[in-house]
Structure formats: structure tokens, C-alpha cells
Amino acid sequence: MEAKIPFSPISHQLCRSSSRFWNTATNLPFCSPVSYPYLIGSSSQLRARHPLISFAVTKVSLLHDLGATGAVLGGAYALVLSFESLTKRNVISQRFSRKLVHILSGLLFVLSWPIFSPSKEARYFAALVPLVNCVRLVVNGLSVSPNSTLIKSVTREGRPEELLRGPLFYVLALLVSAVFFWRDSPIGMISLAMMCGGDGIADIMGRKFGSQKIPYNPRKSLAGSISMFIFGFIISIGLLYYYSSLGYLHMNWETTFTKVAIVSMVATLVESLPITDQIDDNVSVPLATIMAAYVSFGY
Questions:
Q1: How many domains would you assign to the chain?
Q2: Residues 182-234: pLDDT tens digits?
Q3: Cβ(153)–Cβ(87) under 8 Å?
Q4: In terms of DSSP bridges, do strands 22-23 and 3-4 run parallel, antiparallel, or are they unpaired?
Q5: Residues contacting residue 267 through CB under 8 Å, at least 6 positions apart
Q6: What pTM did the predictor assign?
């Protein structure tokens, strides 16, 4: 016995949107089963179709995310190569190049998240990007296969073991933000904004205008801390607005500015503490930001 197949949500929405069109011969809705005999079938046929549809959607998402992962990996590699080229040609200094990579790599990674599919697994594909870099840093840091160009581009003193500290913590922060917070939480976005943008710009401004030191930490400057707060706040708001405009976040902007300012202040204060020898800034800053943002936003 044949039975009418109930519309899927997609079919139902299509029919609703086209309900203004009518079959003039039968005076029936354009999407009615009578007008479209292929919507008639046995219930067993319906059950057989659903796994096929699910498989097709999964396959499309998989290919989408694989392509996105490849594109982001390629972009990250191209970014590093570009600054290496500028350094070799003496266009910019090694130190400035390293800091620009620090600022741009993480922020561009966050900005790339929307190109991944809406699937639940998309975050894990995005996390492959920092994971690949993590493995690369460990291999070179342990001198298993040292890459002198990589070592020079991301370390301060050019020693392989440095890769296992700041740079490794940096990519781990990217990985944690993608896996645990992703596109539907402001916490990961703000933590990376403060670590990459705020802390990165603070170092540049501190070296250039940092004659006045912080009383409790002579290794940090007042100009650097002020820059970290201002730029960390601006970049955080920019990321939240970016994801809100794309529909991933729904922010109450009347309170968001205040919350982000508080989180930025907490991260700035932690970064200014004389604890760099005990805990790297790429650990203390994102960790403090995550905790403060969780208290402020709750998700």
C-alpha cells in the first residue's frame, strides 16, 4: 500500500515559499503531493532515502572542511614565507617580522572560521591547522629535523629549544580556542584577540615608546600595557561584531563593551606582572582572559 511521504523540513520550507503559485488546473498548491507524484511512496522507501540524504550531506561537509583546512594551512604557510622574504631582503627586522607573525597568524586563523562548514565536526578540521604547526614545532624544537629558517622566524635567540616554549604555547592556545569555544562563544575570540593583538602590539609599542617602566615590573612599560588594553579591546570588539554580523553570536551591545573592557583590563594586569620567567605570556594571557571572559559572559 502506498502512503504519502511527509515533507522533510527543507521540502516544507520550499513549499511554503512557493505557496503563492497555484496549479490552475486543480486549484492545488504548487508543491502538493497531487501535483508532484514523486512525493508519493511507501514508508519503507522514505526510510531508505533518509540515510542516503544524510550520507550525501556528510560527504559534502567533509569535502568542504578538508578544502577549508587546506586553504587555511596554505595561507598560514604563505604568511610566514612572506615575512621571511621581507626579512631576508632587509625590508623589516627579524624581531619586527616575528612580532607581526605573532599578531597576524592567530587573528587570521580566527577570521577564517566562517569558511568551515556548519557541521559539528568543523571545529576539529580547523584545529588541524594549529595541530600541524604544533607537530612541526615539536619536531624542530627537539632537533629531530631542525629547520633553521623556522627557528629564526619565531624565536628570539635562535635556539631550537625556544620553539617548545612561547611558539608552542601560542599554537596550543589557537587549538584550544577552536576546539572548546569555536564560533558560538566570545571567550575564545577574546582570548586570542588579547594574546595575538593586544600582547603582540604591546611588545612593539613598548619597545618604541616604553621609556617609563611599570614600578612593580621594570621589564614592562606603561606604554606597552596601555597599548595592550586599547588594542586588545578594539580587536575583541571587532571580532565579536564580525561574528555577530554573520549570525554566529547574539550580543547585548549595551553590556558587551563594559564586559570586554573588564576582560581586557584583567588580561593587561596579568601580562604586566613580573612572572614571565615562571609562566610564558602565551599561557598567562589567554588563560586569564578565558577565566575573566567566562565570568563575564558565562559561555
A1: 3
A2: 999 999 999 999 999 999 999 999 999 988 999 999 999 999 999 999 999 99
A3: yes
A4: unpaired
A5: 194, 198, 228, 232, 285, 288, 289, 292
A6: 0.78
